[in-house]
Design brief:
Keywords: Signal. There is one protein chain. 29% of the residues lie in helices and 49% in strands. By secondary structure, the chain is of the alpha+beta class. The protein has a domain of 139 residues. Helix 2 packs across helix 3. The longest helix has 30 residues.
Length: 214
């Protein structure tokens, strides 16, 4: 009897472990790093425009990343937004993320770029229209510099037009040999320490995304 109890205990432990792993895998499939690739709409030397459509689970994951909160809180934000929009129940809607990467400056062969982003709710039918903006942000596109957002005034002009607008401060760290080049590019010295000079430049970045229906 004692031996059977031990065997039964091992079986129960194994089942619990298997269930936990299966749940973890399921959670990873739902909220894991499986976001779709961006589809590029425009790509120039000055800016790049791209978008991707998101499932509800992927939208929750992006809210978690954008707001730097856990998935449970992100899901609560998503559900609250959904519940407060009665129009959702009268039509078909999808979530779409737009990003625009814009150049702030180019100095000594290094391009300093900022990503402007908007998480939008789109009404779908005969083409897609903007319904509302859920989230907006602006962040440094690379590790060569930092970007501190001062304000973000992104908005919808109408159901076809998204205006991305953000102002912030781009800060770079350089040595003494590069200071003149950064000053010529419109940067001003913020402070220096240990032979490193920190230059900053304020910039207002704007871009209009206009949907076109054929």
């Amino acid at each position: 009897m004692k031996r059977n109890s031990i065997i039964l205990s091992f079986i129960l432990i194994f089942m619990l472990l298997f269930t936990s792993l299966a749940y973890a895998d399921s959670d990873l499939d739902t909220y894991g790093e499986n976001l779709p690739e961006y589809k590029v709409l425009e790509d120039t030397d000055e800016y790049t425009v791209a978008y991707r459509d998101l499932s509800p689970e992927q939208t929750i994951q992006r809210i978690s990343e954008i707001d730097n909160i856990n998935l449970e809180k992100a899901e609560a934000v998503y559900q609250a937004d959904f519940a407060n929009d009665p129009e959702i129940y009268r039509g078909s809607y999808i979530d779409r993320e737009y990003i625009v990467t814009k150049k702030v400056a180019s100095v000594l062969g290094i391009s300093y770029k900022v990503e402007l982003g908007a998480l939008c709710e789109m009404s779908v039918g005969q083409g897609s229209n903007f319904h509302k903006i859920k989230k907006t942000w602006s962040v440094a596109e690379s590790g060569y510099h930092t970007w501190d957002e001062i304000y973000n005034n992104s908005s919808l002009s109408d159901s076809l037009t998204l205006n991305l607008v953000a102002r912030g401060t781009c800060t770079v760290a350089v040595d003494s040999s590069a200071t003149a080049a950064y000053e010529r590019a419109g940067f001003s010295l913020s402070y220096s320490t240990g032979g490193t000079y920190y230059y900053r430049k304020n910039a207002t970045l704007e871009h209009v995304i206009k949907l076109s229906h054929q």
